[in-house]
């Protein structure tokens, strides 16, 4: 029977153990987790919605309930028209169905504000802008 020298016998378990630790586990993942919830709703969607609606004055911004309501906003380029927006974040995941946007539109007719229809494409475009911004925030979270 051949006996290994004591030093070789001690190095074999050490080599096996260190092989399992050779990967660098401190490297970041390619994307940050989609479920980021330091508040009651998805953090990426919340930040993106606040950023996107920053042009209008806010009435309510409830991060636990996930509801953002703007006051009436009239663009300087179209002062006879105003909009009021409500964004609801419905989930803690970063998903398209976790976001709902509702818009009210009024036009000024003879000094009176009268309700007017809002195009579904307008609401969809606003949702797309918020979702794109949320994905961008998620990507930059990893990059630092």
Q: What do you see in this structure?
A:
There is one protein chain. The chain has 3 helices and 5 strands, in the order ααβββββα. The chain is of the alpha+beta class and 144 residues long. A 5-stranded antiparallel β-sheet has the order 1-2-3-4-5, with helices on one face. The longest helix is centred in the last third of the chain and has 24 residues.
Strand composition percent: 15-25%
Mean pLDDT: 83
The run of helices and strands is: HHEEEEEH
Number of helices: 3
**Strand adjacency order, main sheet:** 1-2-3-4-5
The level of helicity is: 25-40%
Draw up the topology in text.
Elements: H1 6-20, H2 43-52, E1 58-62, E2 67-70, E3 81-89, E4 99-109, E5 112-116, H3 120-143
Antiparallel strand pairs: 1-2, 2-3, 3-4, 4-5
Summarize this structure as a short list of keywords or feature phrases.
alpha+beta
Short synopsis of the structure:
The protein is α+β, with helices and mostly antiparallel strands. The chain has helices at residues 6-20, 43-52, 120-143, and strands at 58-62, 67-70, 81-89, 99-109, 112-116. It has a five-stranded antiparallel sheet, with helices on one face.
């Amino acid at each position: 029977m051949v006996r290994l020298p004591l030093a070789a016998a001690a190095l074999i378990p050490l080599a096996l153990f260190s092989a399992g630790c050779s990967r660098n586990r401190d490297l970041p993942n390619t994307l940050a987790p989609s479920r980021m919830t330091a508040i009651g709703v998805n953090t990426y969607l919340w930040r993106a919605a606040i950023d996107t609606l920053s042009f209008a004055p806010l009435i309510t911004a409830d991060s636990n309930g996930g509801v953002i309501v703007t006051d009436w906003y009239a663009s300087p380029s179209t002062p006879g028209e105003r909009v009021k927006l409500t964004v609801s974040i419905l989930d803690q995941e970063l998903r398209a169905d976790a976001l709902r946007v509702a818009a009210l539109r009024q036009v000024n007719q003879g000094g009176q504000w009268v309700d007017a229809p809002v195009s579904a494409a307008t609401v969809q475009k606003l949702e797309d802008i918020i979702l794109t911004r949320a994905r961008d925030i998620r990507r930059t979270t990893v990059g630092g």
